[in-house]
Structure formats: C-alpha cells, structure tokens
Write a structure and sequence with these properties.
This protein is about 0% helix and about 55% strand. By secondary structure, it is mainly beta. It comes from Parasponia andersonii.
C-alpha cells in the first residue's frame, strides 16, 4: 500500500495534556465522513466528555477543530468509563465501555443503554 497524501494536524487548543491525553482518555473515529476526536476525563466525582470535529477547508488547506459536544456525564459510582467508538452515521451516539459492559450513549439526551450485559 502506498500513501500519497498523508497529513498531520495539531490537536485542539483546549485538549488535555499529560495524563489526560493518554489512550485511555482519547478516542478518534469518523462520523458521516468527518474525523472526530473525543476526550473523556474525570473531575472530582463526575466525567466530562468533549468531542471535536475536524473542519477541513479543501480550498486552502486550513484546518480547525470545532467543539461539537461538551457535557458532564451522570453515571453511577465508577472510575472506569471509556469511549469505545463513534456511531458512523448518528452524530449524537457513541459506544462506551464501563467495566465489562458496553453501552450506547445518546449525548443529547444524556442516556445510557446497556447493549451487552455482563455475563
């Protein structure tokens, strides 16, 4: 495989650094053909989820990250919550891991649905 058009880009300005940027807190994916980047971290007793979308202007190669979601998640007592994937067609849905369960999370509604109960 030969790659002819590889590009590098900077992370969003307000993206966490250090321990917050480790792989456990970050997920990237494509939603409706657009690159997205999530950042999930815990502050005190709540999780904060930020999701950016790369806005790429093909005319002059300008690139900027647009913050499309910035929410606080209401969860039960847990320290283990991870973004697993973005829904490829629904901009408001992500999949998340919590311990050994998989959840569908509707961002706009703030609702979790267990899609693979712990066996």
């Amino acid at each position: 495989m030969v790659v002819h058009d590889a590009r590098f880009f900077d992370l969003p300005l307000d993206f966490g650094r250090g321990w917050q940027a480790c792989p456990d807190h970050v997920c990237s994916g494509v939603v409706r053909g657009r690159l997205r980047l999530s950042h999930l971290f815990k502050t005190n007793q709540e999780f904060v989820l930020k999701i950016w979308e790369l806005n790429h202007n093909n005319n002059n190669n300008d690139q900027e990250w647009l913050l499309v979601h910035n929410v606080t998640l209401e969860t039960e007592e847990t320290d283990r919550l991870f973004v697993a994937a973005f829904h490829p067609y629904n901009e408001d849905v992500i999949c998340m891991f919590n311990d050994h369960d998989v959840y569908k999370y509707k961002i706009g509604q703030g609702k979790f649905k267990n899609i693979r109960p712990n066996s």
